[in-house]
Amino acid sequence: MTGQAFAPQWPAALGARPAGERLARVRRSPHFVDGAFRNPVPTRRSTDGAVRLMLRAQREAAGLRRPTGEIPLTVRRAADYADGPESGLRATWLGHATVLVEIDGRRVLFDPMWSTRCSPSAAFGPARLHPMPMRWSELPYLDAVVISHDHYDHLDMATVKALALRDTQFAVPLGLGAHLERWGVPPERILELDWHESAEIAGLQFTATPARHYCNRGARVLGTVLWASWVVSGPMHRVFHSGDTGYFPGFADIADAYGPFDLTMIQAGAYCDAWPEVHLDPEEAVQAHIDLTGAVLLPIHWGTFDLAPHAWHAPAERVLAESERRGVAVAVPRPGQFVEPALKEPVEAWWRAIAAVRGK
Q: Are 171 and 191 in contact (CB under 8 A)?
């Protein structure tokens, strides 16, 4: 029995604290030290002078944090997935960190988030800047769901509850299964992995890899839930999803152990000088991709929610500029647009038509 514990009055959206054998596994992890999981390198969630830096960034980004018009979408239906990609690998960026990947005849959904707000409440919190490009009823059959960590913009209770009604396996970091089990996912469909642990689902190899971040679904679970980046490998292709992370030397180690990668999906938005150690900025995202020996970079974690004081379009613009400077192949699709790495299609700078510009 995996075990979980929560007080009846504890709000469901905050999840559950690991208990029983699940908590025992957490405590046996070499990354669990003095009662909490630790990052691969010393990490601060915010820097000295964080308030000052945040206020300065807010002033600099004033009037630039939202698009000036509707974000263009490519609407997807289940029928679009009836025939898989000829190359064997295709990704659909659905917004923020949610990516549906078709890899070697299987489908894997990363960090699914269908709710309007990334918040413990439907009444407040950051709201979507665009609708999901795929209605829930059009989501095709999934072989696996991967979740990177327990923050609300990556782990959405309503979406998990809906997925619990499907016959889908979940791959998650250590301790996070307590949240899923409370929300109705049967324990036998929850695969929890520590960093550098691997397991097979539907003929694919899933490996939890280090990330420089943290989990925080509420004070009761603080320290007992791990965060991770993920490697998914099939017979012919390999992909990497960063989740949320700051820059650290471990990307090169991940490449040595599990790369190279046909596609890297790397967080490039929600950065700020106030918290530089837990989120990548766009140039660091490109460097991480290079460290990972990736073929094509898909920047994620931008454009859907206003979570940081930078211009709405800045992650895409800066990733594109840095990629061109360093000779990196990059894909910056509109939400819902297919990305097939083997095709290496030119970038259409679709965001520029709706990007707010200073003085306009």
A: yes
Phi/psi at 227 (nearest 5 deg)? Answer: -115, 160
> Residue 74: which of 31, 122, 132, 17 has the closest Cα?
132
CB atoms within 10 A of CB 95: 26
Enumerate the H helices of the chain as residue ranges.
Answer: 20-28, 50-60, 157-164, 177-182, 250-258, 282-291, 314-326
Question: What's the pLDDT score for residue 5?
Answer: 37
Confidence at residue 359, expressed as pLDDT on a 0 to 100 scale: 57
pLDDT score for 6: 37
Q: How far is CA 328 from CA 5, 250, 324, 332, 346, in A?
A: 47, 20, 6, 12, 12
> Where does residue 72 rank: exposed (0-12), middle (13-18), buried (19+ CB within 10 A)?
middle
| Range 322-347 burial, b when 16+ CB lie within 10 A, else e | bbeeeebebbbbbbbbbbbbbeeeee
Q: Residue 349: what pLDDT?
A: 98
pLDDT at 2: 46
pLDDT of residue 40: 97
AA identity, residue 335: P
Taking 60 as the threshold, does the pLDDT of residue 106 lie above it? yes
Q: What are phi and psi of 155, to 5 degrees?
A: -120, 105
3-state SS assignment for residue 158: helix
Q: Across 271-359, where does the E strand assignment appear? A: 294-300, 329-330, 338-339
**Three-state SS at 54:** helix
Task: Determine which helix (DSSP H) or strand (DSSP E) holds 232, and give its type and residue range.
Answer: strand 229-233
What is the mean predicted confidence (pLDDT) over 301-316? 98
What mean pLDDT is predicted for residues 327-337? 98
Residues with Cβ < 8 Å from 347, sequence gap 6 or more? 320, 330, 331, 332
Alpha helices in 267-359 (DSSP H): 282-291, 314-326
Contact 206, 198 (CB under 8 A): yes
For residue 7, the model assigns a pLDDT of 37
Three-state SS for 347?
coil
Chain segment 155-181, per-residue pLDDT in tens: 999 999 999 999 999 999 999 999 999
